[in-house]
């Protein structure tokens, strides 16, 4: 009888925890993976600080000295960083004040990369290179960094704080597309930041894509 009561209580508690997990996911974000993502973000913050202290190589300093235009210097630094990056490494901090977003972005969009934070599409430019900078992120799991990207409005500011500089973008538009619409990350003749995530919430049926143009670009 005692064993039966203990088993019943275990089933009740287990059911309650499952319901609580589901409720938290619906109202906020999946709690277990959120803890994992928080730990990863704290670790990445330390790595990013170290990256910000890295000096250009002697050869890079020679080239930079010959580039009088700040924009060309920024592009050169971005290309130099791009060559050294490996998947899973932090690249910079993404901020969107209007939706309370402040998160470290990693290189790569594989499953393991996106568990740490939003991931930069390796085939696209880094901020400052003049092309399309594309970043993907989760909306319900692993901290749900992009949960509220659907609330971004035209004119909202998005900032990328890179080890080599700070770049600001302004939201131009949002589109809902099929997952096969890879053209949304193509270069368009000016620098833009593209944020992508699954849509609607709790579904991978479509993608929400936010386009933001480099301020002054």
Q: How would you sum up this structure, described in words?
A:
- The model is unreliable at 8-28 (pLDDT under 50).
- A hairpin with a 4-residue loop joins strand 1 (90-96) and strand 2 (101-107).
- This protein has helices spanning 2-27, 31-52, 58-65, 70-84, 111-114; strands spanning 90-96, 101-107, 119-120, 132-136, 157-162, 165-177, 192-199, 206-214.
- An eight-stranded mixed beta barrel has the order 1-2-3-4-7-8-6-5.
- Helices cover 35% and strands 26% of the residues.
- It has 217 residues and is of the alpha+beta class.
Q: Helical percent range?
A: 25-40%
* Number of DSSP-assigned strands: 8
Tally the helices.
5
Give the strand order of the largest sheet, numbering strands 1, 2, ... along the chain.
1-2-3-4-7-8-6-5
Calculate the mean pLDDT score and round it.
89
Helices and strands, in order, run as HHHHEEHEEEEEE
- State the shape: globular
The computed structural class is: alpha+beta
Query: How many angstroms separate the termini?
Result: 74 Å
Radius of gyration: 20 Å
Portion of residues in beta strands equals 25-35%
Most strands sheet: 8 strands, mixed, barrel
- List low-pLDDT spans: 8-28
């Amino acid at each position: 009888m005692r064993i039966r009561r203990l088993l019943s209580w275990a089933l009740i508690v287990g059911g309650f925890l499952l319901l609580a997990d589901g409720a938290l996911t619906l109202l906020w974000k999946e709690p277990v993976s959120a803890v994992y993502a928080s730990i990863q973000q704290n670790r990445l913050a330390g790595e990013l600080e170290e990256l910000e202290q890295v000096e250009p190589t002697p050869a890079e300093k020679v080239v930079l000295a010959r580039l009088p235009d700040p924009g060309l210097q920024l592009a050169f630094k971005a290309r130099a960083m791009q060559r050294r990056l490996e998947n899973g490494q932090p690249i910079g901090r993404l901020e969107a004040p209007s939706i309370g977003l402040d998160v470290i972005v990693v290189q790569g969009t594989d499953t393991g990369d996106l568990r740490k934070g939003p991931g930069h599409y390796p085939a696209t430019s880094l901020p400052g290179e003049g092309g399309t900078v594309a970043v993907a992120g989760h909306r319900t799991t692993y901290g749900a960094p992009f949960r509220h990207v659907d609330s971004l409005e035209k004119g909202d500011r998005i900032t990328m704080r890179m080890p080599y500089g700070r770049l600001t973008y302004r939201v131009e538009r949002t589109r809902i597309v099929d997952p096969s619409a890879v053209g949304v990350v193509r270069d368009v003749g000016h620098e833009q930041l593209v944020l992508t995530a699954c849509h609607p919430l709790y579904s991978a049926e479509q993608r929400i894509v936010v386009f933001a143009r480099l301020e002054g670009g």
